[in-house]
């Protein structure tokens, strides 16, 4: 395959506009652009470059640098082209003697206050100031640079992270990923504006006046690490000089080529240009044409890619006969032969259903498709499961029941047209930060926000954003709150009756309306159960029903409950009740936690479904796959992960191939997971590092990072994005090749030579992917499924003219309390979540400098609960449940309510899931991570279990020296 051809990537100076066409002439050339377009952008459209420094097309025009002045016939003066809108018949001159003289004079002033160290500057060859000096023909500077003594001393006193320059302020090198060099600053404001307009953090300001003006990251005692900066990189990308510069560029030099690929972290699916020097990755730059991120990024996608070359990475296959033995490195042939013989031997001894696979949401669609094909076509059973079921299977079930399809209804662009947003069980600023930035921008423009969460997340109140309502419900009562919202809407006659009559099943609605109208579902009746103020809940319901376009975004705080599927159906009911379906700015939008959760589900990773969400019991579907694969498919659904573990303990499940997933850290009830893995006779881990699951593995197959593979990811908005090979796999093989090698070692006879062939097979067997191939993705950049004959370029909005199932279905959502109850021994409720700098189990981000922000999991506890237990800030506390116990340090905060505690799960030494139970969603078996009854008590340090676990992990990771 050829490298992706990057579309026109020029910086057009100001953002594109939409409007009626306007025709003008620029330097004698006629150009037609939309109304509202700046003269600068119109010139760029005509191929005429106007010099600029403060302007960039990712930010609104500012007009401060005065380098882009032009002459306009009939107007006095020389206006800035970036802030001057076009007008019909306008005649513009961009290259007169007058404007050339003005530009040169302006540039002289900039250069007079700038160090002339271009030859040794890290931005040499990648500096807009340098480029513009050449563009205006500056060859000499008549002014002497000021010494800046007073301000330099001021900065030097507060900042010891850099070496002081006698003429300018010292560098701030506190951030692990980029430096701030005030001496290079031209005060263009681009970084400040990017922080405000793009990121929405408002961490940067301009301090001082005149030649003393410089960017400030906060108060006089703040540097870039201690400030509110979230290290998204927007300021670095916007900076036209070396003021804000990646440390990787300073160390390695300017990149000379780029490859467009897709981030491997959360479900937003940001597009990046991986910029390289030869085969060495220098930096990741968010791709301006990426339709999910629109040129923005977060600290993980932008900077946390160093794990790809981390010393912990395993690059050679390893085997061992027993888990108490050290690993020994072997060749690929020996490892694959060993694994294949083990698996076939187990099937001969215990039956063909005695082995299975687990796929990962961090792998590509093509890789995931092959893994489920491995179990169905080669193993001869349906024992395939995925972490996608462990987090978002209630989404598939709930939305499938209500709408007829199991995915989000909108694209991310839709948020720009919403008027009222409900965020329930999600923390976008930490889990999906690029989407959160777009949401915050819309909120600053006037949209209203309702947050339903036990914890006060940042969106409740932060810089320039405040929720209209925060409903801090008790963990486990989502269904009661959602039904109470519906109760208010129905009983007060706020529903959209026309939408319901035309788009939904009216008879089912009548039954549903009678159910929710019952006084037992009123906000007042459920207040004691949910802990939510009834008047606030009523006000939130009225706002959502009457506030205009209403959109609902939800996350794992909805799905990871015993009633996760019920809550999803309740959310679908709310959207249909208010007519918020089928147009921009509305809809039901699950925020997927990992990069390919959606794709993992689409590819048939569940034990009861073939690709495209079709049940294995359907003979016609099996026959289609059997005709292509040339093997029979078992009509009997296979085992889910907890069933595999139960069967292993019982002695009937003996072998597992686990690709890219760390179930010992990520799945609930760690002791049970460990017991199941220990009972298996062959565990094959296919991953980057010796993860926690590998403690019980017999075969380790080295994996490849997203930088080393071709394929596709499908993000939370159903967008199929290309992943492109940035560098060759360090282990020798991409992950799809390893799966093929294992299949062939077991006699499969597969002959794929490129992932595009796997996508062709996906398209041939999966209706929603029927029109997808790599040629289309190269042409379009990305497409959203369904992509088929009816929708050849994809489907941004679902259910526009009707629901996939025909009529929308209202479903009764009866609240059923979880079996996990608080009591005298365990009076508190634990809920879990993520933090911005870390990702999932932390295997990748813990091996980057992101640990600067989060080096350990902490337990958030309300000061009242802490005081009654004698716990102070930073104390070691024992966190105990009916399942197990662990220790971690306490953080006292009123983000959580009394009676609720909260922690993250990014660090294996905490192993938070030793606390969580094996309760799960009634429909999908999705674990109930978010509700665990616990007790907190002071502790002196790690528990006996943690010490035993650490010792066992250390023993299991011994590797024999390679033979000479």
Automatic annotation (TrEMBL):
Keywords: 2Fe-2S, 4Fe-4S, Iron, Iron-sulfur, Metal-binding, Oxidoreductase, Repeat. Residues 176-207, 220-249 form the 4Fe-4S ferredoxin-type domain. GO terms for cellular component: membrane; oxidoreductase complex. One of its GO terms (molecular function) is formate dehydrogenase (NAD+) activity. It comes from the Bacteria. InterPro entries: 2Fe-2S_ferredoxin-like_sf, 2Fe-2S_ferredoxin-type, 4Fe4S_Fe-S-bd, 4Fe4S_Fe_S_CS, Asp_de-COase-like_dom_sf, Formate_Dh-H_N, Formate_DH_asu, MoPterin_dinucl-bd_dom. Residues 256-312 form the 4Fe-4S Mo/W bis-MGD-type domain. Residues 20-98 form the 2Fe-2S ferredoxin-type domain. Residues 98-137 form the 4Fe-4S His(Cys)3-ligated-type domain. It holds the Pfam family Fer2_4. One of its GO terms (biological process) is respiratory electron transport chain. Belongs to the complex I 75 kDa subunit family. This is Formate dehydrogenase alpha subunit. It comes from Roseovarius pacificus. The lineage of its organism: Bacteria, Pseudomonadati, Pseudomonadota, Alphaproteobacteria, Rhodobacterales.
């Amino acid at each position: 395959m050829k490298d992706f051809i990057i579309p026109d990537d020029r910086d057009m100076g100001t953002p594109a506009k939409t409007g009626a066409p306007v025709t003008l002439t620029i330097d004698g050339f006629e150009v037609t652009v939309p109304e509202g377009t700046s003269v600068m952008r119109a010139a760029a459209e005509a191929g005429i470059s106007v010099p600029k420094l403060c302007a960039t097309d990712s930010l609104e025009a500012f007009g401060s640098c005065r380098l882009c002045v032009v002459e306009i016939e009939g107007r006095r003066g020389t206006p800035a082209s970036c802030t001057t809108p076009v007008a019909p018949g306008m005649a513009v001159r961009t290259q007169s003697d007058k404007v050339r003289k003005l530009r040169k004079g302006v540039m002289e002033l900039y250069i007079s206050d700038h160090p002339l160290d271009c030859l040794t500057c890290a931005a040499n060859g990648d500096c807009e100031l340098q480029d513009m000096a050449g563009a205006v023909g500056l060859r000499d500077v008549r002014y002497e640079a000021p010494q800046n003594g007073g301000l330099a001393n001021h900065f030097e006193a507060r900042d010891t992270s850099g070496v002081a320059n006698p003429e300018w302020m010292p560098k701030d090198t506190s951030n692990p990923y980029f430096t701030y060099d005030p001496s290079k600053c031209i005060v263009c404001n681009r970084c400040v504006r990017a922080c405000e307009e793009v990121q929405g953090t408002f961490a940067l300001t301009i301090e001082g006046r005149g030649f003393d003006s410089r960017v400030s990251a906060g108060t006089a005692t703040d540097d870039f690490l201690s400030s509110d900066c979230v290290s998204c990189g927007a300021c670095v990308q916007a900076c036209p000089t070396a003021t804000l510069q990646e440390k990787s560029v300073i160390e390695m030099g300017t990149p000379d080529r780029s490859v467009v690929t897709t981030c491997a972290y959360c479900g937003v699916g940001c597009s990046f240009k991986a910029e390289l020097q030869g085969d060495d990755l220098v930096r990741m730059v968010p791709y301006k044409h990426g339709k999910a991120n629109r040129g923005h990024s977060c600290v993980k996608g932008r900077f946390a890619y160093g794990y790809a070359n981390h010393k912990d990475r395993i690059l050679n296959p390893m085997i061992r006969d027993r888990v108490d033995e050290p690993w020994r490195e072997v060749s690929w042939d020996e490892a694959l032969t060993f694994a294949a013989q083990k698996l076939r031997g187990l099937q001969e001894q215990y039956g063909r259903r005695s082995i299975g696979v687990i796929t990962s949401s961090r792998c590509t669609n093509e890789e995931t498709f092959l893994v489920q094909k491995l179990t169905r076509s080669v193993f001869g059973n349906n024992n395939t499961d995925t972490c996608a079921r462990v987090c978002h299977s209630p989404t598939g079930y709930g939305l499938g029941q209500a709408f007829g399809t199991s995915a989000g209804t909108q694209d991310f662009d839709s948020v720009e047209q919403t008027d009222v947003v409900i965020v329930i069980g999600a923390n976008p600023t930490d889990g999906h930060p690029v989407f959160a930035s777009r949401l915050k921008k819309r909120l600053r423009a006037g949209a209203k926000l309702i947050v339903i969460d036990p914890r006060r997340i940042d969106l409740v109140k932060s810089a320039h954003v405040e929720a209209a309502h925060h409903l801090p419900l008790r963990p486990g009562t989502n269904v009661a709150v959602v039904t109470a919202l519906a109760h208010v809407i129905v009983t007060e006659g706020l529903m959209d009756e026309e939408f319901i009559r035309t788009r939904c099943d009216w008879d089912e609605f009548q039954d549903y309306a009678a159910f929710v109208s019952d006084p037992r579902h009123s906000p007042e009746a459920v207040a004691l159960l949910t802990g939510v103020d009834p008047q606030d809940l009523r006000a939130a319901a009225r706002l959502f029903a009457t506030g205009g376009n209403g959109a609902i975004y939800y996350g794992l705080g909805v799905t990871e409950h015993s009633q996760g599927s019920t809550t999803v159906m309740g959310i679908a009911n709310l959207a249909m009740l208010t007519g918020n379906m089928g147009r921009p700015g509305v809809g039901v939008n699950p925020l997927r936690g990992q990069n390919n959760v959606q794709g993992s589900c689409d590819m048939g990773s569940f034990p009861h479904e073939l690709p495209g969400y079709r049940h294995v019991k359907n003979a016609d579907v099996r026959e289609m796959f059997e005709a292509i694969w040339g093997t029979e498919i078992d009509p009997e659904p296979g085992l889910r992960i907890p069933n595999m573990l139960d069967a292993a303990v019982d002695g009937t499940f003996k072998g597992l191939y686990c690709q890219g997933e760390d179930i010992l850290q990520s799945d609930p009830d760690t002791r049970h997971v460990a017991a199941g893995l220990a009972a298996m006779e062959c565990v094959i881990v296919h991953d980057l590092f010796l993860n926690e699951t590998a403690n019980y593995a017999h075969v380790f197959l080295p994996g490849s990072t997203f930088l080393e593979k071709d394929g596709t990811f499908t993000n939370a908005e159903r967008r199929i994005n290309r992943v492109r090979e940035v560098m060759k796999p360090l282990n020798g093989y991409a992950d799809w090749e390893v799966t093929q090698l294992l299949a062939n070692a077991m006699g499969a006879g597969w002959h794929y030579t490129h992932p595009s062939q796997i996508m062709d097979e996906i398209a041939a067997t999966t209706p929603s992917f029927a029109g997808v191939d790599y040629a289309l993705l190269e042409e379009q950049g990305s497409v959203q499924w369904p992509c088929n004959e009816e929708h050849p370029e994809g489907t941004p909005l679902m259910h526009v003219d009707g629901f996939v199932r025909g009529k929308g279905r209202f479903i009764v959502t009866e609240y059923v309390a979880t079996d996990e109850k608080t009591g005298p021994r365990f009076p508190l409720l634990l809920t879990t979540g993520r933090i911005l700098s870390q990702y999932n189990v932390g295997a990748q981000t813990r091996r980057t400098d992101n640990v600067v922000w989060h080096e350990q999991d902490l337990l958030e506890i309300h000061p009242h609960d802490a005081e009654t237990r004698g716990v102070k800030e930073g104390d070691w506390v024992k966190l105990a449940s009916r399942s197990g116990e662990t220790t971690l340090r306490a953080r006292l905060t009123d983000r959580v309510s009394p009676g609720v505690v909260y922690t993250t799960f990014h660090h294996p030494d905490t192993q938070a899931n030793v606390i969580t139970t094996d309760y799960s969603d009634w429909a999908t078996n999705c674990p109930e991570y978010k509700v665990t009854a616990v007790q907190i008590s002071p502790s002196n340090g790690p528990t006996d279990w943690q010490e035993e676990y650490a010792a066992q992990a250390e023993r299991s990771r011994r590797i024999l020296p390679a033979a000479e």
